[in-house]
Amino acid sequence: MTVDALTDVTGVRVGHATRTGDGWLTGTTVVLAPECGAVAAVDVRGGGPGTKETDALDPRNLVQKAEAVVLTGGSAYGLDAASGVMAWLEERGRGVRVGPDPAHVVPVVPAACVFDLGRGGDFRARPGADMGRTAVEAAAASEPGARVPEGCVGAGTGAVAGALKGGIGTASTVLDSGVTVAALVVANAAGAVLDPETGALYGELWQGRAVYPEGCVHEAARRRLALCAAQNGAPPLNTTLAVVATDAELSKAQAQKLAGTAHDGIARAVRPVHLLHDGDTVFALATGTHPLGSEHPLALNDILAAGAEVVTRAIVRGVRAAESVAGPGGMWPSYGELYGKR
């Protein structure tokens, strides 16, 4: 049975650490690979990314697999969360063996951050190593195939999508070949996720299942969004992060192609994307339990198309699952509050 989440890829687990109140509105999300690790790659298209260990994922370089991926709030400061994840993995002997002792390992833990500084009221309230450890422990303690909490949790706690509250979303699909492709996204965008003329979500417009709110509802929502945007001041910095995972057997080069085409899923749901102040980053993980077969060299195409699709759906789900926030750092109404939940 699938749960329409990243955890539908067997062996992949997700854990969140969330902190709110007393100036805090931020968190960290960890995607934990199976104990043997997962082939990993990344594609960075934002002009202002905050990342760690992404060079190690280049197909030309030595490292083949990652043990975990960290998505975190706190801008570049929040990348400290990865240290807590590395320490947890080292204690369990997980990582690249670098010495004769089995304990001599260096865990490969790529990370990326979103900008949420000050959204809880305190600019210095940001994730550190302790929050990273909490998130990876939550991932390890979760059941295989567990549902993944969405909305204002983990790295999505302080996320904002244009003038709306953003958050974490996830989605999955199973191809005719039996391959599973799934995504988890942190929707934290300066660009809009909804059509300003109709109130429909761009991601749902692309999917052909948009809901068009009544005119009076949309006009009330526009007034509320304009008021909140004026009170909040400058628009938020833009970073949408994603992890796309599959159980297919991919090389690093194929995984990098998957990370690249998955950016199409962001572009369908957020406008604009990939600008100079964006940090848009997509990681790809392949657990390798489902061989593609060299006799079908174009079999990767279905996985590439599915990766973009689940990223779009995950953004929609993250926005729909988010809840309104009003505090010392600003006011961000949720899509559900403005247009109703479904």
Descriptive account of the structure:
With 342 residues, the chain is α+β, with helices and mostly antiparallel strands. 27% of the residues lie in helices and 25% in strands. It contains 7 helices and 17 strands. It has helices spanning 81-91, 129-141, 202-207, 215-232, 252-269, 300-321, 335-339; strands at 13-21, 24-32, 38-44, 51-52, 65-66, 68-72, 96-97, 105-106, 111-113, 160-161, 164-165, 167-174, 180-187, 241-248, 281-290, 325-327, 330-332. A 6-stranded mixed beta sheet has the order 5-3-15-14-13-12. It has a 5-stranded mixed beta sheet with strand order 1-2-6-9-4, with helices on one face. The protein is globular. The two termini are 23 Å apart. The mean pLDDT is 94.
Could you provide a short overview of the structure?
With 342 residues, the protein is of the alpha+beta class. 27% of the residues lie in helices and 25% in strands. The model has no long low-confidence stretch (mean pLDDT 94).
List the main descriptive attributes of the protein structure presented here.
342 residues, alpha+beta, six-stranded mixed β-sheet, 7 helices, 25% strand
Helices and strands in order:
Elements: E1 13-21, E2 24-32, E3 38-44, E4 51-52, E5 65-66, E6 68-72, H1 81-91, E7 96-97, E8 105-106, E9 111-113, H2 129-141, E10 160-161, E11 164-165, E12 167-174, E13 180-187, H3 202-207, H4 215-232, E14 241-248, H5 252-269, E15 281-290, H6 300-321, E16 325-327, E17 330-332, H7 335-339
Parallel strand pairs: 6-9, 14-15
Antiparallel strand pairs: 1-2, 2-6, 3-5, 3-15, 4-9, 7-8, 10-11, 12-13, 13-14, 16-17
Helix pairs in contact: 1-2, 5-6
